[in-house]
Amino acid sequence: MTDVYSEVASYEFTTLTCIPGVIKHRGAKIQMLDLPGIVEGAKDGRGRGRQVIATARTCSMLLIVLDAVKSMNHKPIIEKELEGFGIRLNQRPPAVTFRRKEKGGVTLSQTFKGEAKYLDQQVCKSVLQEYRISNADVILHEDITGEQLIDVIEGNRIYMPCVYVLNKLDAISLEELEILDQCPNYCPISAHLKWNLDGLLDKIWEYLNLVRVYTKPKGQMPDYEAPVILSGYETPTIERFILKIHKSLLTDFKHALVWGTSTKHSP
Question: What is the reported pLDDT for 11?
């Protein structure tokens, strides 16, 4: 996909080091890293797993390549190793306000309607006691579990989108493909025959939530060759666009005209 050579063989774990590459899609340059595979116990350092997962933490998205011919037993193993290293796949940060205070004990409140199913006052106190926190305000904006509260307290979790790439599409039957179609967040491909690689790129674009912004000098045609790319699930704003170019421009900014099919208002 990136025109960079990465060793391929009929046996597993052919990639032994990180191999970077860049692919251009819809005017955006997307850097892809081919990382070595991880094994069970990787989060504890087995098979240089810590180095591999630490590199994965710095990425904006993960593509987990699985063999469509074999069983899906590797999927939960990989997810467990990544979760043990603080990576949360296809999840958003919990909508919780957590504030430490000097006195007053633990106060648990909520802003959503209905009763919390998983977290009550007793469970909240028990979790906080494990971290020797006796005084804090916990405000729930959604129903969360005790594990999610731990993630909020730790404060070092990484939330990123993930697509499960099922390779060897050419080696399975149509009936098997229909079964795999029930899996969420997946994309079937055939790396050997180059099937559905465009579909995979579209998935990457969708999961990264990329937005193209074209600049138009006054009195001239828009520059359609080099768009400014905004990513992430935050709402695209003029401020984010300016900071993407250079933060010093924000102090001199006066006004802007925005138009296009995805804008709320168009001049």
Answer: 59
